[in-house]
Amino acid sequence: MFRQMRRGKQALSKAQCEEILQRATCGVLAVLGDGGYPYAVPLSYLYADGKMYFHCAKEGHKLDALLWEPKASFCVVDRDEVVSQEYTTYFRSVIAFGKVQEVVDETKKGEIIDRLALRYAPHDTDKNRSEAIRREWSALCVLQMTVEQLSGKEAVELVRRRKEEEREGQPC
Asked: Engineered SS bond to 78: which of 20, 107, 125, 151, CB 3.0-4.6 Å?
């Protein structure tokens, strides 16, 4: 169902992809929007237990699109270094494909939004975090993407560099 990566030697392992998803703070969710046009929107997110979580309002373009077609992709760019003298970019990115649905269980919704808040405001107090969530609760929607395909790719130059570093670190 999902395409094989054309340049497989540049593929990142699942563990590398998950490490990037844990480290990065923003990605772009792409859905089938109005009139069949793609709609891509940058979002903060939480990656946990093989799932992506997002928050949004209970109405809007993104939610309407997902109600119509729950299939989506989510892309995170980990590295984007233009190397003009080589006419290339040293890049590293991850793409997740899956189906998105609203988290309707109130307990799970609360757990996820609390984890999201902790991720983006780790130094806030429990009291402030709880009050902020309570204030926004009635307008808050939490979405869950069940990841069906996860892949990552990096520039061939980064692959070569990593292999050289691995060789140098091993005894002869």
From this structure: 20
Tell me, rounded to whole angstroms, the distance of Cα 106 from its chain centroid. Answer: 23
Beta-carbon count within 10 A of 148 CB:
13
Q: Which of 43, 17, 154, 79 is nearest to 163 (CA)?
A: 154
6-28-148-137 Cα dihedral, nearest 10 degrees: 180
For residue 46 the two structure tokens come to: 């939480």
For residue 5, the 8-state DSSP code is: P
Separation of alpha carbons 85 and 57, rounded Å: 45
Closest by Cα among 2, 3, 68 to 39: 68
CB 24 within 8 A of CB 78: yes
In tens, the pLDDT along 97-128 reads: 999 999 999 999 999 999 999 999 999 999 99
**Residue at 11: amino acid letter:** A
Structure tokens at 14: 């699942």
Give kind and range of the element (H or E) at residue 158: helix 156-168
pTM of the model: 0.88
